[in-house]
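User: What would this chain look like folded?
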Amino acid sequence: MQQAADLQNLLRSIHRKSYPAYKSLKGVYQFDRYLLSIDHVQGDPFASPSHISVRISHRDAGFPSEYYKNKITKVTLRDYLTRQFEQQVNLYTFRAKGSGKSGLISVTHCGQEVLERTACEITEKGIIARFFIGFPANGRTINAQELEKILFEFLPVCVQKAFFYRNLNSRQLEQAIFLAEDQAYIRSELAGRSLAAFVADGSVLPRESGISSRPMKDSVPFYSPETLQVSMQLPHKGTITGMGIPKGITLIVGGGYHGKSTLLNALELGVYNHIPGDGREYVITDETALKLRSEDGRFVKDVDISLFINDLPNKKDTRLFSTEDASGSTSQAAGIVEGMEAGSRVFLLDEDTSATNFMVRDAFMQKVIQREKEPITPFLERAGDLYKEAGISTILVAGSSGAFFHIADTIIQMDNYKPVDITAATKELCKDYPLLSSDTPAFRLPESRRIMTKPAAQNPRRSNYYGRGHFGKEHNGENEGGQEGRQERLKTKVHGKDGFSLGKQEIDLRYIEQLIDSEQTAALGLLLKFAAEYLIDGKRTLPEIVHYLDNQLQKNGLSFFGEGSYIPCGYAVPRSQEIFSCFNRFRRP
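Assistant: Here's the prediction, encoded as structure tokens.
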């Protein structure tokens, strides 16, 4: 173990040398009450900044042990500490001068949701904080005096103020922990109360703007209609009331701009815990809920969509349907079946982003185009069986077709952002407007065994899809393809939340609407890269691969999939549903 003084001596010895001399700093150094680890040094001042981590023992950090007793409290504490650290480093970033990224100090920026991130990890031994520093230089000449200023003046202050319990607002932290435990309690109550979701009275659902997820100021607070109101006794907050959305089929209707999509958006993000003051803290949805939509042009591979689409004119087998360029209806049918495969218990749909011909066929259309001439069985005719036979509830926003009133168990009208239960009155009206009877094909659960295969190698001698890497034989038996020379690894490049490239392939995730952070997208790239290099072998099915990855995430976090001996800042754990969605869009033979 080297000491902080050793690092100072190294810095002074390389001052004004060429930039590669910075690599001699790599290692671990003992500072006052924490360890500083220089994990990766950037190649030049214009490259991605250097990876740094700090380790503090539980004894020195001083946090109550009940704050990291289980996963819920541990993730909440990690999130809270990351936010505190970001506030501190923002005061010092770029105060050291130089070329390119010189003087940059950055850490993850957290949004309104609480995610498990690599920026902060809590182990049995203590706390690990990960971040980036741009090592200063003038041109490509090392300016070690500026880096010494960062490591010995700025950073100690940030670490002390962010990661030591005695220096934090203990009441604020306690409120964050208590809120997380209350949120977990509500989530656990949903199943026992046969609810798909819960929206607390007083919640603020509208957001500040289309590009801001902060709560809108002076907006209309949410209050439940009496007929749907439920109350819960939370462990910390006490009694709370709100709207319970029952399992089954729930229809959300209302005029334009009255809050239908706002409510649906709050529900789709209710799969995550939110921070205090967000306005949606107590909007809790079944954790497996999946937002679905049509997606023209998406890749579909070996999906049994016969539940919705049959007897295509080209005689294509819809029990094992594949296409490079799906239509709106086939993409949405595939999305529903893939969601069933992913274990989702609630589907969220908005009529505006759905394929019209997939959702409903009105009476006149049924008269003109007979059943035997129409290959699509609309969602309208399947939603009831999805719940009765598969236990999957539907929450649907509709604004144009009245046919959905007939199948809904619960109907909520949004009137100027206020929910009104109109179920009873609407069901009376339905008697005057009966649906045309249709000969719906029998319901049959989809069946498919989707084996994942690698895309064809671009170069058989140096394939991007083979490689042993640092995991060796532990994960995939022998080297893929049986050739020892194939050592080239896949490269990934993340494009914000929208997707990433893997090798030469682009993975488009723009329509995975419950992806909320680019760090989740980065993690999906890491997971798919790992799968392509070690797991996809032409034998394992897609669910087998995803379940394996998800189990490793639950047990070991993202560190299991790291490159080399460490995992850097910049990744957030995605849900199993998003892992499925990502892998389903990976183009393969």
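The radius of gyration is 27 Å. If you want, I can go into more detail on any region.
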